[in-house]
Amino acid sequence: MTPQVPSVLAEMAQLLVRNSAPDVAPGERANALTLAAAVLGVAAEVWDAAAENLVQENRALAALLDDAAGEASLRLSALRAENARLRSLLIAAHAAAEEAGDTAREEAIWAELIASTERRKLSISPS
Amino acid sequence: MAGHPLEPRLAAYIAGRLPDAADVTVSGLERISGGASRETYRFRARWRQGDEVVARRLILRRDPPASLIDTERRVEFAAYQAFHGSAVPVPAMLWLEEADGPLDHPFFIAEEISGFQASPQLMFAGGYDAVLPRLAERKWTILGEIARADPEALGLTQVMTPVAPDACWRKELDHWEAILDSDEAEPQPIARAAIRWLGRNPPPPAQKLSVVHGDYRTGNFLYDEAGEIHGVLDWEMAHLGDPLEDLAWGFNPVWQFGRGLAGGLASQDEAIAIWERASGLVADPVALHWWILFNCVKGQGIWVGSARAFIDGGNTDPIMVYAAWWLLNAQDRAIAKVMGRL
Fold it and tell me: Could you report the predicted ipTM of this complex, rounded to two decimals?
């Protein structure tokens, strides 16, 4: 997810400290805390499956792209960097398939793209 | 408890704009939730004008350090001014300040339209069910009035860049593609596929050059229990362009609020019929499909920009995170649906 969860949690911690000050206007405090709570709820929802989803997606993309690079680390930051590298390659492969009229390749790429949106779908998703 | 620290500065500013007023005070300043492109506050201002005491409920819209949408507040201010008193209900604008000095960032002040709701969640919580058809009628009738209006007669060609009817699509697509290029924190393969399709399949020229509100959707207007609309808000993306762009923004699937209806209010066909009656224009299905997909890309540009503002530290308000987390993947799914892939 973008922005990444660790930086968001750090910022929400600072927000909680700021809003613990007694001179914050009640309306502004309520707005800030309500939104912060919603953000924390989403972070909690994605936490457990985050690494597994990235590993699954990176393996699927690597297979689709016939890319040999492996998993050097299971840290989320490393998995995300690898995911970004593979998705960038996927964009080029998708454009090339369209250019070549390779509909079978296009279908395979779209199937993976739809699968990626299923992995990333949140309970609050409007679509 | 002491008042908000902005109150005395705001009072000093208003006093400077009202040379005949005395004893200007500002109280009750509080931020209204939800605004991600401008900080929005409501407040009360009082002053003495001769023997009379004047009390007004006003709105302050101030630029944040970094915005979800980077726009000229002068254009937004002019759009409100142009439609005030017309069939398109908008709040009255009072003062525009583009310097940083008075309140640290540019801002404008407007009359508050008080006593009405904007929340889509409240609209769909059950208490308004009986008036939802009326709200749909009013929503797309007002949008039709915006589409029908003559931008030149409104004076808006002075502040908004005119564009040839056959160039509207390219101007908008280039604009939002450039935002994705500059702001994306990770590759966007679905949005990029949509952009390629849009470029290969341009729509027909706009049937007229219209004012485009740019964010006309459920949630950006004030409504009441009778289903009447009292104010169209959030004109920060207003520009001149193809009127179908505005109609199509409301058909972006992320604005269905889980109800399977355009804006949560009506079927797409019903909305189009209302809009066509009010505007006197035609929603060509092929052109409309192009603009719906375009608006999905535009939406992704906005959510990507929201994430970027947070990542760069320009605006760490939690709304910037929530908008991105809530909508980035949902917008991808909406693109896939519009392209017939989901």
Answer: 0.95
